[in-house]
Known about the structure:
The protein is an alpha/beta fold. The chain is 43% helix and 13% strand.
Amino acid sequence: MKIAIVGTGYVGLVSGTCFAEMGIDVTCVDINQAKIDALLVGEIPIYEPNLDAMVLRNVKSGRLHFTTDLPTVLNDMDVVFSAVGTPPDEDGSADLRYVLDVARTIGQNMNKYLVVVTKSTVPVGTAAKVKAVISEELVKRGLDLDFDVASNPEFLKEGNAIADFMKPDRVVVGVEGERAKEVMTSLYKPMLISNFRVIFMDIPSAEMTKYAANSMLATRISFMNDIANLCELVGADVNMVRKGIGSDTRIGGKFLYAGIGYGGSCFPKDVKALIKTADQKGYSMQVLKAVEAVNEDQKNVLFRKFEHCFGGKISGRKVAIWGLSFKPETDDMREAPALVLINSLLNAGCTVSVYDPVAMNECRRRIGEVVIYAKDLYDTVLDADAIFHVTEWKEFRMPNWKVIKRAMKTDAVLIDGRNVFDQNEIEGIKYLRIG
């Protein structure tokens, strides 16, 4: 089987490389020639553990190819995945221009049966639009060709994407007919041969499943952050509360950690898009609107703790920030709480020193030289009044607190946005956490 994946962003590149790893002939397509040239020599545009080696291995094996020219390879393919970006418009709805551009190109160039699969996260009804665009282009060409559309949303966690793809909890596929179902079964069966976890459903349900899954996870995060804030007011410990409710099998312990709000490329965008979809249908997603409001407010919780700790006298103070990416094992800073914190600190007149194992260049690209880029976590704390622990990278878990205490000001404070440290091990530094 031969497949093409249009778009070499996070979803497209991971998916294409993993399919190639399973022995499928894959061609990844992107309009950016510089990106394609880099990928051909194993240089990848994103940070994802072990992905660079896998790309290079499959390029050398001849299973993974890269091109900027979809029309020249289109009719060698059995399946074409669309994994292009769907950035949010100003009103929060998903921008489908790139998805429909791909559909238009397919309709203008296809000469045989294809299964056209939407891999991008798209609103309910997008597959119908893709089908209409392809059909329109075929009519213009005077052709009557069979094709099918399908929806195959991704459920990849940044930092663990390869394992998520190779050993998924489930694979959701929306199809309209048996022929497309057979093709998609053939595609996924080799990697799920011992436990075929593909869930077939109608296309609108598949499109909705992706948004509903991410919105549920976002809801759990905002719920626990709301509970954490109340815990502080009543004297409860959110870590104990989390254990108490997470042991209930109906609830479970995943995504119940209090913190500083969710960020990244998925949760914020998908929650907004689902709210907008409902608004367009005259329905208000009241729970999700509250989830979004709680999350935006939670991104300010560390700054408020800092301001309160020093009685509002924070101008001129130096602070250290440990972690910039929205989560560990990625350099992604989209909607990252660190950006909100940095902006608040700079506006308050603070000097900000930052360190992240992989996201330093991404931070420079986003905000320039308005902060000090430290060489390591110890460098950040020199003469600092406060440390903000923002991203729970493993290298932050067991620092030498004696060295840190000597390097900081005498009235220093550690504000832990991830609740990972043991207060008993941090002598001489005031410790604040969430909940």
